[in-house]
Amino acid sequence: MPEFPAQSSVELSRRLEIRGGNSSSWVAVLHPIADAQTVLDGLRDDLSSLLQKNTRILDLDTSSFEQLRKELHQPADDIVILTAVDELPPEKWSALDLMRSALERRGPLILWLSPGAFTTLSEFAPNIRSFIGPSIFAASPEGGIMTEEERKNRLGELALHYELTDAEIVHRAESGELPPEPEFVEWLVLLGRGDLI
Questions:
Q1: 167 and 87 share a domain?
Q2: Are the beta carbons of 181 and 43 closer than 8 angstroms?
Q3: 130, containing H or E segment
Q4: 180 and 135, same structural domain?
Q5: By residue range, what is the domain housing residue 159?
Q6: Which pLDDT tens digit goes with each residue over 134-144?
Q7: Half-sphere exposure of 2 toward its Cβ, with a 13 Å CA cutoff?
């Protein structure tokens, strides 16, 4: 299996934001072997905070097709992470592939898979694989958290772009004057001030 680029939650959020809220984005994220649940919880929380949309986790292992179809469309514009903690048998991937059009929705769909599950999906669900296209990433080994250098660089980019300091952003958030723009939410998260969102 080829190496896929590691993505932090912030980077993945940025990609989805650029594509737009109703882009019907399909993304595969290959989870780490250790602490997969912790990383998944962090990804859900970060996506919700940064994109200001509800993010739900649905389990492919235990959901029937009918349940899945219903839950994906109520609502159809939030963010859904489909997990396959246990590797799904090939026949389940084939069945999902045949019914892929019923899985299409306006909001982003993220498949949270082990590398082995992704290999099985690629072989037995070629249409779903084509929906994903090149949008395949490995969860960042730091559990979806940027390195300190990446964090500082991104804070510098935001400060330069908006011509504001970190202290001004915190002050505006505390006084209720900060617009609820995704970039400002990201800024507060990177400052460790998610409590002000």
A1: no
A2: no
A3: helix 126-132
A4: no
A5: 148-196
A6: 888 877 655 45
A7: 6
The answer to pTM > 0.85 is no
Q: Which residues does 71 contact at the CB level (< 8 Å), separation at least 6? A: 56, 58, 63, 80
Structurally, the chain folds into a number of domains equal to 2
Do both 92 and 164 map to the same domain? no
Residues 78, 107 contacting (CB under 8 angstroms): yes
Contacts (Cβ under 8 Å, ≥6 apart) of 153: none
146, 46 Cβ separation under 8 angstroms: no
* CA 115 to each of CA 13, 54, 89, 124, 176: distance values in angstroms, whole numbers, following the listed order: 22, 27, 14, 14, 44
> What separation, in Å, do the N-terminal and C-terminal C-alpha atoms of the chain show?
40
Dist CA 194 CA 197 (whole Å): 5
Residue 73 has pLDDT above 50, yes or no: yes
Is position 117 within any domain? yes
A 10 A CB-CB count for 28 gives: 24
